[in-house]
Design goal:
Blueprint: E1 2-5, H1 10-17, E2 25-28, H2 45-60, E3 64-73, E4 80-81, H3 94-104, E5 112-123, E6 126-138, E7 154-156, H4 168-174, H5 176-191
Parallel strand pairs: 1-2, 1-3
Antiparallel strand pairs: 3-4, 3-5, 5-6, 6-7
Bound molecules: inosine 5'-triphosphate (ITT).
The site of inosine 5'-triphosphate has 20 residues, from strand 3 and helix 3.
Length: about 190
């Protein structure tokens, strides 16, 4: 089975390829020759996830899936949330965003945060969504070089390490993305038997 992934983020593609069950092949939209940025103008993670999947499905007349992920920090009233990719501005790098979080939280005692991923599988005008959440905390400093995005400052509950101090297989033990993909994979398995 071949699935098209509506994402321009190559880190996500790599992670997802390490998760899906045997027999499922994932093709990134860039490999399909789709070079545009996907629209993400909704106010929620669910809304953006659907918007991206629906947009690509219509543009390429295909079945595909997308995911939207946000880091929700309790003491910042759920920010950066749906704005995670552009927290420090429209063209912000991962490092800019991480620095902004550390700065905003310089005095914060409450460091509780969670990652939330919502996958949307869009096929023939219908869609279904799968959520994955991982609770954790924001560290005081960056730690580790692996992964991407906010990985150097997010320590999942039950771990002494940040995501960025983990190899991919270890991140997958805790990962918000992995949890949502397990649900998605389960659905695919059931709907193809
Ligand atoms: P696509 O929309 O093309 O998939 P994107 O990078 O814009 O790629 P999102 O809109 O979902 O993706 O933005 C989420 C941002 O949150 C992302 O740019 C990272 O900064 C961060 N992020 C997402 N997943 C993460 C993870 O597993 N670890 C750390 N940071 C993550």
């Amino acid at each position: 089975m071949k699935l098209i992934f509506a994402t321009g983020n190559l880190h996500k593609l790599k992670e997802v390829r390490s998760m899906l069950p045997r027999g499922v092949q994932v093709i990134g939209m860039r490999e399909m020759g789709f070079e545009e940025e996907l629209p993400e103008t909704q106010m929620t993670i669910e809304g953006n996830s659907l918007q991206k999947a629906e947009y690509l499905a219509r543009e390429l007349s295909c079945t595909c899936f997308a995911e939207d992920t946000g880091l929700e920090i309790e003491s910042l009233n759920g920010e950066p949330g749906v704005y995670s990719a552009r927290y420090a501005g429209e063209n912000a790098t991962f490092e800019d965003n991480v620095n902004k979080v550390l700065q905003e939280m310089a005095e914060a005692e409450n460091r509780k945060a969670r990652f939330k991923t919502v996958i949307t599988y869009y096929s023939e005008g219908k869609y279904v969504q799968f959520e994955g959440i991982t609770e954790g905390e924001i560290t005081k400093e960056k730690q580790g070089e692996e992964g991407f995005g906010y990985d150097p400052i997010f320590k999942p509950l039950g771990s002494a390490k940040t995501y960025a101090q983990m190899a991919l297989a270890e991140k997958n033990i805790y990962s918000h993305r992995k949890k949502s993909f397990e649900r998605f994979a389960n659905y695919l398995t059931k709907s193809t038997v």
